[in-house]
From TrEMBL:
Cellular component annotations (GO), alphabetically ordered: membrane
Occurrences of domain PAS (ranges): 426-471
Keyword Cell membrane: no
Locations listed in the record: Membrane
GO molecular function, one term: ATP binding
The protein's name in its UniProt record: Uncharacterized protein
Protein origin, superkingdom: Bacteria
Keywords assigned: ATP-binding, Kinase, Membrane, Nucleotide-binding, Phosphoprotein, Transferase, Transmembrane, Transmembrane helix, Two-component regulatory system
Protein source organism: Frigoriglobus tundricola
Claim: Cell membrane is one of the keywords in the record: no
């Protein structure tokens, strides 16, 4: 078996394949050789591409790609040896190469089978993520640029043919593919794989047609010429692939550079964002610390409020178990706080009213509402005394609306109810005093309208309550100047004592009154005036009559004195008239009202006192007759 390894490249003892059989023709041989050479070139290009991809770190299963490359390279080598054996029968090398290909093929199979589940998993993950393999997508150029690249490839091939034709006298059929290979290298490196292949094909066709020695066709070439043509084609394909690879590498480098620049900008923006986030976090931390401090302070205030509140406060869970209560309520229940926490309300207070307990339970339900009620019950602080409690129950909920239970506030309103009853009793007594006082009373508001009036004043003026309340107080006064002075003094904070005024009755008469009034002020604001009205009409009339009688008596005395003071009657009468005028003027000044001379006076001419046609007064006759001549002294009786 090991004799196979000796003389691997020795064709001795083996005829060339073209002489094995009589059916070989030049065309058939050309087909076989050309096909094997192209297969070998393709199989040689594929491993190069695979080896290029295995250099990328993110490519999965790099060893599997390497096995595939070796397998394809071994297959391509067998095709190359098959092409050589038409003129160089190295069967030992062909057998060894096939054995190597078999071993590499089965190694690839054995490596591929365990990786199938992982490949399927990766494909499923790619389908779920939808990301694909974005970094391996081809970078397609615009259609117009691709067409221009192909035109450049065709022109380069034509130019290479023309240059070779110009150099043909010098080269004499040697090195026919050098210029074409240079053209392929240039086009592939500058314009990519496709234009390079186009330049290669045109160059191969032109060169084999124009520059093959003796004008032989490609079918009539020798094996060496076929091998040279295949090597040229392989080199052209390899150069095109390498050119495309470097173009792709340059393009990817530019894209990577742009991506790195963009990434740098993104990173800078991310750094700025993170700095902002860090600043926000520090601010948030500061705010959180401040919020915790405020929460602790608020909790301390709440604890202080609950511990010192002068009312009972408790919180229950949905099952009406005590969650928290203040010492005030614990003292009312006669048990310490510790005996309440965690226990049901019914267990702590067995005699608690069932209807209120049911109301508490409804309040602690998810759809509970607040309610307020008054309860009567014992207070352990005051044995034997029943107290009245104002109870308010309300649901306790989180910000999300979740119900935590119920809260209850119980306030002892016993003293307040007693005070309210005393206030109501005082108000009733005040109203009774106001309405039933035998002195006229009324209140006047800041707008000078009557707010309230009692029965005595209504009876004095003859009005009903509806006719006076809401009416300006000036409408009831007979003297506008008097009421204006009174209101002005009250607004200045003065107090009126027995201020004389005249009120107008409903029937048109006037009543003489004395008004005592003061103002109720609250924080500098005029609330209302309190007026006491005392009717002095009759007293005034009686006083005036007594004064009138006194003046009349005085006048009579003065007249009698005047008559007795002189002999002449004229002088006596003149003194009487002067006295009368003086008394009437005094009466007018004293009463404040004009008086007609002699009206309402008892000073009237005596019987027998007459006036003469000349205006002279006749002599008084006190029961006798007088003479027609000189006057006669009368005598008093």
């Amino acid at each position: 078996m090991f004799d196979v390894l000796s003389g691997l490249f020795d064709p001795t003892g083996f005829p060339p394949r073209r002489y094995c059989g009589t059916g070989w023709t030049a065309g058939l041989i050309w087909v076989h050789i050309t096909s094997d050479l192209f297969i070998w070139l393709a199989y040689l290009s594929i491993p190069l591409v695979l080896f290029y991809f295995t250099r990328r770190r993110e490519l999965p299963f790099p060893r599997l790609f390497a096995l595939f490359a070796l397998f394809i390279l071994a297959c391509g080598t067998t095709h190359l040896i098959d092409a050589l054996m038409f003129d160089y029968p190295v069967y030992r090398l062909a057998g060894l190469m096939k054995a190597i290909t078999a071993v590499v093929s089965w190694a690839t199979v054995l490596a591929l089978v365990p990786l199938v589940p992982r490949v399927m998993e990766l494909l499923a993950q790619a389908d779920r993520s939808g990301a694909g393999t974005k970094s391996h997508r081809p970078l397609a150029a615009p259609r117009s640029l691709r067409l221009r690249d192909y035109i450049v490839g065709v022109l380069a091939a034509v130019l290479a043919i023309l240059v070779r034709a110009a150099l043909d006298p010098i080269l004499q059929g040697d090195h026919i593919f050098v210029v074409a290979l240079l053209a392929v290298v240039y086009v592939s490196w500058q314009h990519g794989f496709g234009p390079g292949i186009a330049c290669l094909v045109i160059g191969v066709g032109g060169y084999t047609t124009l520059f093959v020695p003796n004008g032989r066709l490609i079918f009539d070439m020798s094996t060496g010429e076929h091998l040279a043509l295949g090597l040229f084609f392989f080199c052209g394909v390899a150069c095109s692939a390498l050119g495309q690879s470097q173009r792709l590498a340059q393009r990817r480098a530019r894209v990577a550079l742009a991506a790195s620049v963009a990434r740098r900008d993104e990173l800078e923006s991310e750094v700025e964002r993170r700095r902002g986030v860090e600043a926000a976090l520090r601010q948030r931390e500061t705010e959180l610390v401040a919020a915790q401090r405020e929460t602790a302070e608020a909790l301390a205030r709440l604890n202080a409020f609950l511990d010192n509140a002068p009312m009972g406060i408790a919180f229950f869970d949905p099952d009406l178990r005590f969650v928290r209560l203040n010492p005030y309520l614990a003292a009312v229940n006669g048990k310490p706080v510790e005996e309440h926490t965690g226990r049901a309300l019914r267990d702590v207070l067995p005699d608690f009213p069932a209807d209120v307990l049911a109301a508490y339970r409804r309040t602690a339900a998810p759809d509970g509402v607040s309610f307020t009620a008054q309860l009567r019950g014992p207070d352990r602080r005051f044995p034997g005394e029943t107290r009245v409690w104002q109870v308010t129950a309300f649901p306790v909920r989180e910000a999300t609306g979740h119900t935590l239970g119920a809260g209850v506030v119980a306030q002892d309103v016993t003293d307040r109810l007693r005070a309210e009853e005393e206030v109501r009793r005082s108000e009733r007594n005040l109203a009774d005093f106001f309405d039933n006082a035998n002195v006229g009373l009324h209140w006047v508001g800041p707008d000078d309208t009557v707010l309230r009036v009692n029965k005595a004043e209504l009876e004095m003026l003859g009005y009903t309550r509806d006719e006076i309340v809401g009416r300006p107080i000036a409408d009831l006064h007979a003297d506008p100047a008097v009421i204006g002075d009174m209101l002005g003094r009250l607004r200045r904070g003065e107090r009126l004592d027995n201020y004389p005024a005249r009120l107008r009755c409903k029937d048109g008469n006037t009543r003489e009154v004395l008004v005592s009034s003061s103002v109720l002020w609250e924080e500098g604001r005029f609330v209302h005036s309190r007026c006491f009205t005392r009717d002095v009409t009759e007293v005034k009339r009686a006083t005036d009559e007594l004064a009138e009688r006194a003046r009349t008596a005085t006048l009579r005395a003065d007249v009698a004195a005047a008559l007795a003071s002189g002999d002449e009657t004229r002088v006596a009468l003149q003194a009487c008239a002067e006295t009368l005028v003086r008394q009437v003027g005094a009466r007018s000044r004293g009463s404040g009202r004009p008086t007609r001379p002699g009206a309402g006076s008892s000073c009237r001419p005596a019987r027998g006192c007459t006036r003469t046609p000349t205006g002279r007064t006749a002599a008084w006759n006190w029961g006798g007759s007088r003479s027609a001549g000189s006057p006669r002294r009368g005598r008093r009786t």
